[in-house]
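Internal ticket - ligand job 366, adenosine-5'-triphosphate:
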Amino acid sequence: MSVLTQTTAKALVLENLHKRYESRGREAFHAVKGIDLHIEPGELVALLGPSGCGKTTTLRMIAGLETVTSGDIRIGDRSIPHLPPGRRDIGVGFESYALYPPLDVEGNLSYGLKARGVKDADARVRAIAERLEMTDLLPLRPAGLSSGQKQRVALARALVRNPPVLLLDEPLSHLDAAQRQRVRRELKVLQREFGYTTIVVTHDQLEALSLADRLAVMDGGVIQQFGTADEIFDDPANRFVADFVGEPKINLVEGVVDRAGSVRVGRDGVLPTASRAAAGTAVTVGVRPQDARIARADEASVPGEVVVFENLLEFGLATVSVEGLDSSVVVQTSPEVDYRRGDAVRLTAPPARVYLFDPEDGARLR
Ligand SMILES: Nc1ncnc2c1ncn2[C@@H]1O[C@H](COP(=O)(O)OP(=O)(O)OP(=O)(O)O)[C@@H](O)[C@H]1O
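stdout (structure tokens):
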């Protein structure tokens, strides 16, 4: 029987959480502006967003490494902002969390457990090291480790405590591609097996999609959308989310609502849309390359000319210039078709996949 045991899964709840960094002589900086997040017991949530949006600040407040300006954080039914980091029952895998240089990796991993009187500390360290394929690192000193190795040690240290809540900040960023895939899978297996309620901060969308049950997309200190990958991809809450999530990037072009259910794009184009925005409204039109397709002759469509065609084996990407638009648009095509520069095409998309946004504030016009 393994020494690793299932944790008692607990919900992690953030309620109207704010962080203002105060520094003398300067205006306070409002980095986190009222976050509400309800993470189910055993759920893995990826926190996604551009640099500076407040991801790390949020994680540090949960971990107790940063004070909370206002709002509440609860693990199960226990409010934690007043507790010191060591009493929060949280496993933290942050890069900045230093290892003790005089101890070898094994010592670093077992130190905290032994300090708390955990009896089978050594066996637990070995078991985690095996699962993360890092037993060869156990006798080494931190000074001799590569950044990728340090990262695996940080992950092991977070996991070895068997915490009900796990916080990981870019846990795989220094690993090479092959290791990254392996550790990512093992992390997901361990997380499922042991039921840690987990937040992972990542810049890598593929990593977020592969690991997470739900994604929280953040910008400007605010959660812009919280949902499954499909919900966020298929039904983006606003222009920021539509633009931030998805590869290749969504096409965003200017347009004017023609009549209900139809929007004019470029000089001669028309697209169907499920939006009920009123006729005459100036809008930003969003269509994902995956949703755009070549139109039949009788369909509402946007005429254009192929500028570049990239054959990527599983699909093609046609970059198409459209009369009257400042930027070209990208269409993902099926593998069997081939286009050349100068080919005339007509583009369309399903009405539910032609999103309209307010050109000023980016709000979705449904
Ligand atoms: N101690 C601090 N004092 C003042 N401002 C800070 C402090 N720490 C962070 N900030 C600011 O708060 C904002 C959010 O920072 P945070 O590190 O949380 O962002 P992030 O989303 O994690 O970014 P990254 O992905 O680059 O780490 C940034 O504008 C940052 O400059």
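Auto-summary: The CA atoms of residues 154 and 322 lie 50 Å apart. The domain at 249-357 is CATH 2.40.50.140 (OB fold (Dihydrolipoamide Acetyltransferase, E2P)).
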